[in-house]
Amino acid sequence: MMNLKGNPALTDSNLMIPLVNYGINCMSMGFLVEETAPIVWRGLMVMSAIEKLLRQVEWGQLDYLVIDMPPGTGDVQLSISQNIPISGAVIVSTPQDIALLDAERAAKMFHKVNVRVLGIVQNMSFFQCPKCKHETYIFGTEGAKELATKLELDVLGDIPLHMNIREMSDKGQPIVVSHPDSPEANAYLRLSAEVMKKLPGSPR
Fold it and tell me: Is the pLDDT of residue 144 over 80?
């Protein structure tokens, strides 16, 4: 999604140097294995990989460190939440019931390990026909909002299911860069602003 490939270079102190695009430092397990190689790690192997990605990278001075985690409440989530200080977690879910079950479990897991949940993002909230602009709610309408109410959380934003987002992501061009004035880019910008307002020390 960031149009980055290849193995990270190393500093003299043997720290990995993040790959950079659009002014963003990035590090991923995908940079460390072959492109189509499966990653089927559990337990200690997962914790070792997480430690490498967090502690053995020359991150430099960062405004924010964003960690994109897989769905669920497994080894990755527990290892990260128990080993580094986290300012907050953002739960992302489509509005459909089966996805919301995982989202609710994730929110409750973070609560158990004393990680503040900043709110919920409703992803793929609707599909807009590129020809007639009619909006179709493929995965339902208010699922994430109802879950947020149940858990006493805020909805941080709604991200549409849009052709531009898919096409630009496949090309490694974030929609906020390729189409910065589009409604779908504005959805991401509003979301990021809401997340920033929720973080400790941010102006309200």
Answer: yes
Please state, in angstroms and rounded to a whole number, the distance separating the CA atoms of residues 27 and 121. Answer: 23
Q: What is the pLDDT of residues 48-91, one digit of tens each?
A: 888 888 899 999 999 999 999 888 777 788 888 888 889 999 99
The C-alpha angle 99, 103, 109, rounded to 5 degrees, equals 145
| 8 Å CB contact between 79 and 47 | yes
Q: Are 136 and 126 in contact (CB under 8 A)?
A: yes
Residue bearing tokens 């940079």: 31
Confidence of residue 99 (pLDDT cuts 50, 70, 90): very high
Alpha helices in the chain (DSSP H): 43-55, 75-83, 97-112, 143-151, 163-170, 175-178, 183-198
What pLDDT, on the 0 to 100 scale, is given for residue 75?
A: 77
Other C-beta atoms lying within 10 Å of the C-beta of residue 70 = 8
Contacts of 61 (CB under 8 A, 6+ apart): none
- Pick from 190, 203, 95: nearest CA to 141: 95
- Cα–Cα–Cα angle for 124, 74, 60, rounded to 5 degrees: 80
Residue 183: which of 155, 197, 164, 156 has the closest Cα?
Answer: 164
* Rama region for 17: left / alpha / beta (φ>0; ψ in -120 to 50; rest): beta
pTM of the model: 0.88
> Is 119 within 8 Å of 154 (Cβ atoms)?
yes
